[in-house]
Amino acid sequence: MKTLNYLIIIALSVLTLSSCKTTYYQVYRAVPSDRSMANREALVYEDENCEVTYNLWSHGGNMGFAFFNKSKENIYLNLDECFFVRNNVANDYYLDREFTQTSNVGSKSSRKKGASVALTGLNFLGLIQSNQAAAEVSESLITSSGSSISVKEKKIITIPPGTLKFISEYNISESLYRDCDLLKYPRRKQVKTLHFMKEESPFVFSNRITYRVGESAEPVQFENQFYVSEITNYPEKEVVDYESDEFCGEKSEEKYNFFKIKSPDRFYIMYLKSQNGMKH
């Protein structure tokens, strides 16, 4: 019995320690090399044919973009000529992959008096849905069917006039930046921001994009470049807050977390405090 009590105490201690781990956020601010992109609520590049919009805010920084066709013809986005470049290392957007899409539909009927028939499948939104119907019979029957389709990655993406498509593949960085002047686990009054010019920035990154307007047009190429200008480590309470969801004037009883400093030109890495004792 003493051994059992001892094991219970150890288990509760481990659970308590793991649940009390403090969360921190390393938050980055990025500046576009073309300053006109930052004169709006979003990061937007625009030419006579298209608008390309960025929202970096995510864990690791989302370098994906929304490509909107302003013209009156189809625009063909040549992924095999599009690249994500980070610190002079180029990464291909076209990776010549093959994806498998699988769908399953099953049905189960219970033929027992007063029982019900349950039908499960995908509705028109692609969501799993179950429907119930009454039945008055007395045996059991289970049937199911499935299908899979292999889809090859497209080298050229067609964007019709007046529409947009989202292209997403790479994160900016998922590793913590460490510096002797940056505390890894700061308290509120110890929060400090490192500032960088482009020449000394630890991350300079861009999308190099190639597209054509119409099938016979000459290719148009441009580059949307950014660099990290600020890095700050925050305790969770300085970044995340909690509030009730509100819709049509009615507030939910449950509270949800939201980011207080969210913006399109920022991204973050969330991390937990470790026990190695290192301050930086």
Could you walk me through the main structural features you see in this protein, from its secondary elements to its overall organization?
This protein is mainly beta. It folds into 2 domains: 20-97 and 153-272, no CATH class; 99-151, no CATH class. The protein contains 1 helix and 19 strands. The strands form 4 sheets. Strands 1, 5, 6, 7, 12, 14, 15, 16 and 19 form a 9-stranded antiparallel beta sheet that branches. Strands 2-3-4-13 form a 4-stranded antiparallel beta sheet, with no helix packed on it. The chain has a 4-stranded antiparallel beta sheet with strand order 10-9-8-11, with no helix packed on it. A hairpin with a 2-residue loop joins β6 (83-86) and β7 (89-92). The chain starts with a helix and ends in an 8-residue tail after the last strand.
How are helices and strands ordered from N to C? HEEEEEEEEEEEEEEEEEEE
Low-confidence parts lasting 5 or more residues at pLDDT below 50?
6-19, 110-140
Helical stretch count?
A: 1
Q: Quote the distance from N terminus to C terminus.
A: 45 Å
Global morphology? globular
Mean pLDDT: 82
**Which secondary-structure class do the elements indicate?**
mainly beta
What's the number of domains?
Answer: 2
Strand content: over 45%
Helix content: under 10%
* Number of E-state strands: 19
Largest sheet: 9 strands, antiparallel
Gyration radius, in Å? 26 Å
